[in-house]
Write a structure and sequence with these properties.
With 308 residues, the chain is α+β, with helices and mostly antiparallel strands. It contains 10 helices and 12 strands. Bound molecules: cytidine-5'-monophosphate. The site of cytidine-5'-monophosphate has 12 residues, from strand 2 and helix 5.
Length: 308
């Protein structure tokens, strides 16, 4: 069997509305996912036992062995199709998406592994069936399969493709160290309790943001970006406030923390503006590094052999 390679995008959340904490330890969400053109690549090939090898950005920070989300995805798929024998794979991950950055890099690798193993084993699962397996692996994994721009509900795993026009140019500013997603959610709960915020506040979708996305105008989208986890991420990393302020000062149309952070995402007016913004942010010394990306990007997809 020839190896299968899949390319998978990172995501930012254009809106992340966090509702009440549920009995299962997750929060009810209303979120707008947006896939961006920063990709990891995952190659799977048959092996005697399942193993994971990681190279590239933050490789040393990716958990190895059974704790790895990609390995868990391969096992979840084998279990769901009741695959016997020959279900072990060698998983090779080439990372460009930083780890614990709020960009769903681990979820992306899990989604890529699902698509790759599905192809390698010829399981014939439909996209919807694959999304069900993905939801069991992690809240953000189904979106990494789908890509584009989509509304996520529940834990974030219930998806509806969103009508969004145009291409958006972003600058992502990376932080020196990652943030733990559970810690950021717990901090959000603590800040809300301290404020005496109503416990039961429901997560709501911004109809203004959805209308702006349909218009395809980044100047309309920028001011409507919002993230309920931002205050928590900034309280854990006060330096992020400076990075966000610098982006706004340099003319970003919108500035926000991506997901649970600590990556900052800045929306630019066009490709040229994104280049200027990237140079200015680098010069300001407010982050470990920057990349320019475009959205929406397509979801996890097999790279035809010979083109990778
Ligand atoms: O689903 P996933 O394993 O990616 O979630 C990681 C952690 O993020 C969860 O254990 C939980 O603490 C937090 N989370 C949450 N509500 C969500 C999604 C994630 O509290 N909707």
């Amino acid at each position: 069997m020839t190896p299968v390679t899949v390319r998978v995008p990172a995501k930012v959340n254009l809106q992340l509305s966090v509702g009440p904490l549920r009995d299962d330890g997750y929060h009810d969400l209303m979120t707008v996912f947006h896939a961006v053109s920063l990709y990891d690549e995952v190659t799977v090939r048959p092996a005697d036992r399942t193993s994971v090898r990681v190279t590239g950005q933050d490789a040393a920070l990716v958990p190895a062995g059974r704790a790895n989300l990609a390995a868990r995805a391969a096992r979840a798929l084998a279990a769901s199709v009741r695959r016997r024998g020959r279900s072990a794979v060698q998983i090779e991950i080439r990372k460009r998406i930083p780890v614990a950055a709020g960009l769903a890099g681990g979820s992306a690798d899990a989604a890529a592994t699902l698509v790759a193993c599905n192809d390698l084993w010829g399981t014939g699962l439909s996209p919807a069936e694959l999304r069900d397996v993905a939801a069991g692996v992690g809240s953000d994994v189904p979106f990494a399969l789908l890509g584009g721009t989509a509304v996520g509900q529940g834990r974030g795993e219930r998806l509806t493709a969103a009508l969004a026009a145009g291409t958006y140019h972003w600058v992502l500013a990376f932080a020196a160290a990652g943030l733990s997603t559970p810690e950021v959610y717990a901090t959000c709960d603590r800040l809300r309790a301290a404020r005496g915020a109503a416990d039961g506040a429901e997560a709501v979708l911004s109809t203004e943001l959805m209308a702006a996305l349909r218009s395809g105008d980044p100047a309309a989208v920028g001011p409507l970006l919002s993230n309920d986890l931002q205050a928590a991420a900034v309280s854990l990393r006060p330096g992020l406030r400076r990075a966000l302020a610098a982006g706004r000062e340099f003319g970003a149309l919108g500035a926000m923390i991506s997901g649970s952070g600590p990556t900052c995402a800045f929306l630019a007016a066009n490709a040229g503006h994104a280049r200027e913004l990237a140079v200015s942010l680098t010069g300001a010394g407010v982050c470990r590094g920057v990349v320019r990306v475009k959205g929406p990007a397509t979801g996890a997809a097999v790279i035809p052999a010979g083109t990778g």
